[in-house]
Amino acid sequence: MKNIFKLIAVVIVCLSFQASSAQNETILNDNTNTWFTMLNRINLNTKWSVSNEIHERFGAFLNEQGTFLWRPSVDYHVNSSVEFSFGYSYINNKPNDPNPKIGVVENNIWEQVLLKHDISKVHFQHRFRQENRWFDTVGQNLDGSYSKTGTDYGNRFRYRLTINTTLKKLSNNDELFFQGFDEIWFSQTDKLAPKAFNRNWLYLGLGYKFNSKSNLQLGYMNQWDVLSNNTFVSTPIIQTTFVRNFDL
Is 229 helix (H, G, I), strand (E, B) or coil? Predict the structure, then answer.
């Protein structure tokens, strides 16, 4: 348990230092976003599975439609510690701060490696995701309005460190657990070299595990976005996640 709190402290200090280094240019978003996520996985056998994610995200605490995201994937399990995935994402962004002034759509395909290990009673996951993105571009008209100008292509890399540990066993299957993660996003050149830092997510939450295949989580996440070279925005998010897996 001591290890998990040390790690949380390090992540918070690093993020606080990052934000404070640009505090004169950081915009604090007063509107708390509310995100709802459903995660499913169907285990086909010991080596293969198919997964699905559905995200519904709202701005201004349920008052603004934000983002709808659908993300299916196929997963190959090398062993209990290593997993490869190949997937697709459909992302529909409605006008919502800090998103563009009009709705835009993104389609991407992605490749992912997931590494797992334990230290004492703390479970660690390292997620490396490479995204190949096709997204709408937006321009401002002479009258000040916005319109789509076409479609662009870009590459993006994401790394997420997740920690999970049981806080209290309630019965043979039920338990209360803690989960936290920090994820960094980088845009890339055509040759996949890192080009610019885009975003950071820091999440801290509690979960209730009904059994080995189902759990419900509620947590707080801070989203830190780079809007331009000298402008940043920090957005508070309340996130609810439901996980339900199946075996064939």
Answer: coil
Q: What is the domain extent for residue 157?
A: 2-247
At 16, is the secondary structure helix, strand, or coil? helix
Give the chain's domain count. Answer: 1
The Cβ-side half-sphere exposure at 229, using a 13 Å CA radius, reads 0
* Residues 70-79: b if buried by 16+ CB within 10 A, e if exposed: ebebebebee
* Dist CA 102 CA 92 (whole Å): 11
Tens digits of residue pLDDT in 146-190 = 888 999 999 999 999 999 999 999 887 899 999 999 999 999 999
- The first and second tokens of residue 230, run together, are 């000298």
Q: Which of 105, 42, 102, 99 is nearest to 70 (CA)?
A: 105
**What CATH number did the domain enclosing 231 receive?**
2.40.160
Query: Could you tell me the pTM of the whole model?
Result: 0.87
Contact 86, 73 (CB under 8 A): yes
